[in-house]
Inverse folding.
């Protein structure tokens, strides 16, 4: 047997003349998310998407759709004919599946088909009366019901449902250009990537690896984090930049207290160069204001001074608890806390400067051959195509 899912979007409906672009992008992402599901049929029709699947695949399909940005909610629906008696009978059957003694309910009707002879309030009234007579133990509560039964009257048939399963909302990935995520392996950067994808951005990712100071396990952790993100936006190219020589040079030639600032400036230089090569229009970081030495206002100013490309910081106003809560919800937290160090913790000074002066930092950088270091890092960069697990 087949099951039918009705999919709703939110702000896409406000896009005016661009709406069709966003709708088509959402439909394409739905199709991508359901690859490998047998006998799956997807339709886009008048502000809704519909997915028809084998009944046994419904739970798996719902799980996948809950990771598609742009989807606000979805509902398994039953189909009735464009006839009030058919609507009543199907409504009674569907409500009967979830009814409990003493439960209150309400009928909400949306009449998209204006040729249907009854108006929405009339349908809700007639169906509600029928349900009171045919489903025992119910009472009506139009303000705070235990259960809402929805009736959508469309052009060719009527959809009836009792569930609204939440989706992630936002905009379809791919609708807002490409960004390059600086992913460290910690808690923050994967959340920043997820939040940016929610605004429709396609991601590539950049990780700085300092072998042998950082282990292959640290790299594997970043691959696993990136794989989680692919569940929300499709495949991601992960670029692993060689950072060992840069850290050696910083330790050898520069003031220890400025190491963090100088390291971050080198990262931004490499990231900007890679973004230009890959057609990414912005860098994305997991920085949260004041969280660590490199994330004070002064540090952010000095570090970003080396770039001209926009830098997105979706976590900038969030505290750690908020970030951790999101990481748990999107299933990155347990990976992020694996005890493998990344390059940001290697050679960390005991007392890093928290309010660096640009003049001091630029003076320290005169000891470095910046162009040669950046070029070498990019030449040794490894690119891995990460795909989600089906």
């Amino acid at each position: 047997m087949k099951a039918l899912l009705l999919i709703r979007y939110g702000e896409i409906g406000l896009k005016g003349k661009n709406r069709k672009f966003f709708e088509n992008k959402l439909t394409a992402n739905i199709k991508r998310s359901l690859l490998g599901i047998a006998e799956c049929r997807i339709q886009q029709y008048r502000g809704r998407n519909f997915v028809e699947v084998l009944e046994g695949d419904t739970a798996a399909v719902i799980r996948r759709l809950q990771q598609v940005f742009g989807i606000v909610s979805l509902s398994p629906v039953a189909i009735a004919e464009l006839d009030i008696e058919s609507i009543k009978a199907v409504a009674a059957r569907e409500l009967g599946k979830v009814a409990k003694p003493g439960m209150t309910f309400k009928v909400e009707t949306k009449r998209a088909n204006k040729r249907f002879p009854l108006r929405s309030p009339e349908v809700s009234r007639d169906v509600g009366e029928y349900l009171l007579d045919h489903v025992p133990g119910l009472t009506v509560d139009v303000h705070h019901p235990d259960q809402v039964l929805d009736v959508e009257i469309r052009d060719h048939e009527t959809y009836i449902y009792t569930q609204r399963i939440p989706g992630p909302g936002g905009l379809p990935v791919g609708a807002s250009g490409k960004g390059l995520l600086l992913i460290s392996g910690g808690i923050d950067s994967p959340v920043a990537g997820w939040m940016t994808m929610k605004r429709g951005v396609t991601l590539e990712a950049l990780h700085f690896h300092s072998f042998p100071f950082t282990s292959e396990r640290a790299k594997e952790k970043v691959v696993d984090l990136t794989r989680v993100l692919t569940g929300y936006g499709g495949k991601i190219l992960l670029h692993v930049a060689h950072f060992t020589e840069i850290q050696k040079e910083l330790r050898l030639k520069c003031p220890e207290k400025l190491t963090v600032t100088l390291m971050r400036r080198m990262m931004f230089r490499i990231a900007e160069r890679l973004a230009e090569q890959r057609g990414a229009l912005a860098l994305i970081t997991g920085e949260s204001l004041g969280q660590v030495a490199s994330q004070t206002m002064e540090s952010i100013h000095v570090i970003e001074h080396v770039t001209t490309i926009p830098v997105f910081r979706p976590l900038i106003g969030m505290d750690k608890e908020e970030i951790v809560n999101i990481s748990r919800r999107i299933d990155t937290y347990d990976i992020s806390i694996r005890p493998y160090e990344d390059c940001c913790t290697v050679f960390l000074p005991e007392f890093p400067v928290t309010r660096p002066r640009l003049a001091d930092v630029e003076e320290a950088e005169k000891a470095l051959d910046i162009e040669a270091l950046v070029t070498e890092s990019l030449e040794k960069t490894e690119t891995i195509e990460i795909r989600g697990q089906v």
Notes: The longest strand covers residues 71-80. The CA atoms of residues 21 and 293 lie 42 Å apart.
